[in-house]
Amino acid sequence: MSSYKIKKIYTLAELIGELEKDYEDYGGSIWYRGQTKESHSLLPSYLRKEYSTEQTILSAFKQNATMLTNAQPNNSFDWMFLMQHYGIPTRLLDWSESPLVALYFALQKNDNNDAVLWALKPTELNKHCGIDEEKEEFFIPSFESKVIAGYSIESISDTPAKLNPSAVIATRNNPRIQAQMGVFTIHHKNKIPIEDIGDKSHILKYIIDKDSKVQILKQIELLGITKFQLFPELSSIESMMKKRGLIK
User: Fold this and answer.
1) Which residues contact 44 (CB under 8 A, 6 or more apart)?
2) pLDDT of residue 106
């Protein structure tokens, strides 16, 4: 049985060197996801536990959120993005087109656990769910594409099929997702983690040594990857001012 590559990382320079070496001959997009605990799998929050049906969760969220949103979501995918944004369990996983952004999220806990940076070839993942556009070598669908319709909340409840997860591009319609260079994978009913699908050639795992986390985080913050940069909101200003020593 094949397995994905795993590499242990101790410095930021080492990580950059490994990324350059691993993907220098690959012409497609690479997506990145940081997780604070190395043992966590690539499975979205909704599939990790037993919850109410998605329709029930969506209805409850709509009931309470409708009057608080400036622009009404157009469809269930848009509602799913909004729920994800505010911490409601969904079938989405957040990824970034920037390894440094993903690394920032991986390093947010200064504890005794190794962190992890996942690197994904989205078009290779999509071949495992039948999405492979012959006319465009590195085609990645959007949530408006017909090939993704079967992953909607409405469709998934009407089909017995269990599809593999898909990599999908979403409209960056808020400052946070734009700042984080956000992209997504979406699961169907299949509870298999992304790293366990197929021959695993679509995924690579970089384990960040627990004793290196603080130093690497300082280095990427020096490069401008900060909370205020990634969360350009009023609520982030306090932490920025504290780091500059303006307040305590």
Assistant:
1) 89, 90, 91, 92, 93, 187
2) 98
